[in-house]
Design brief:
The chain is α/β, with parallel strands linked by helices. Helices cover 38% and strands 23% of the residues. A hairpin with a 5-residue loop joins β13 and β14. It holds the Pfam family PfkB.
Length: 303
């Protein structure tokens, strides 16, 4: 039980005419794989050139695709336009579905989020799988809201809330918190999620860094320096850095849930600094091109 299971969408990002493998959960899987973590990815791709490209890309990054994820039809795409500040707006052509329980060993950590958590029919299977795996695994979740794909905002908010209640670690952007709970300040919503049972709620603040809440208090870190090319994958890289840091601290797995609940501000500060470093390295590259262990260690030594 020393692997991660990532559940969620894979797609092709088409950015200014260039094609990149993407999808928030896939980015998390690839990021962990490039850091040398064992990763299984439960996803859905079409039996087409894009689907084969995704499979080859994931495998080259050390990710094992769970069998049964490929099916007839097209692979999802997201056409992105990048603003002068590096931010991206998306138009999606999406298919998201899952069936059955993957034939994998019980994972140490299971991650999901983004489109997978709210888009039917796949989101229903995602919720059931999280209930299944949280018995043995730490659950991590990033809502990574895509409003353009949400037909019923209230239902989407309900589904996000359901997953928050079952998660040990939640990473969320300040922008997403404003969408999820528009009538409350983002910090109030984050504190509410901590009260629901999460051990850590980490909130990314763009170029203002990040904040995190745990039972030992609230901490804040500055953003790591970066020459921003685009922000695609920056939040996913933050999630990868946070998971990896906590893994190194031996705080993942259901058998470590009590220890994770007791994490203190000093340890959490170290984990957040690692997460912001991975994010900075990623936004300095075109597309969601997450760094490997050697690049992260070199950047950490240079700080």
């Amino acid at each position: 039980m020393n692997r991660a299971l990532v559940i969620g969408e894979s797609l092709i990002d088409i950015i200014d005419g260039n094609e990149y493998v993407g999808g928030s959960p896939l980015n998390v899987a690839v990021g962990l794989g490039r850091l040398g973590r064992g990763v299984d990815l439960l996803t859905h791709v079409g039996d087409d050139p894009y689907g084969r490209l995704i499979a080859e890309y994931a495998t080259a990054s050390g990710v094992q695709l769970v069998s049964g994820g490929a099916g007839p039809g097209r692979t999802s795409t997201a056409r992105a336009s990048v603003g002068v500040d590096g931010s991206a707006d998306y138009v999606f052509d999406l298919t998201w579905q899952l069936s059955g329980t993957p034939a994998v060993a019980p994972p140490r950590v299971v991650h999901t989020g983004s489109i997978a958590s709210v888009h039917e029919p796949g989101c229903l299977a995602v919720a059931a799988l999280i209930d299944t795996y949280r018995v043995s695994a730490t659950v991590t979740f990033d809502p990574n809201v895509r409003p353009a794909l949400i037909g019923d905002p209230d239902l989407a908010r309900e589904r996000i809330g359901h997953l928050v209640e079952r998660s040990d670690i939640v990473k969320v952007s300040e922008e997403d918190l404003r969408w999820i709970s528009p009538d409350h300040p983002p910090e109030a919503t984050a504190r509410g999620w901590l009260a629901c049972g999460a051990s850590i709620v980490a909130v990314t603040l763009g170029d203002r860094g990040a904040t995190a809440l745990c039972r030992g208090g609230e901490i804040r870190v500055s953003a790591a320096r970066a020459q921003v090319v685009d922000t695609v994958g920056g939040g996913d890289a933050f999630m990868v850095g946070l998971i990896d840091a906590l893994w190194t601290m031996n705080l993942l797995g259901a058998d470590r849930r009590d220890e994770l609940r007791r994490i203190g501000p000093e340890a959490l500060t170290g984990a957040l600094r690692r997460a912001t470093l991975l994010s900075a390295l990623t936004v300095a590259r075109a597309g969601a091109d997450l760094p490997d262990r050697a690049a992260v260690d070199a950047a950490a030594d240079a700080v």
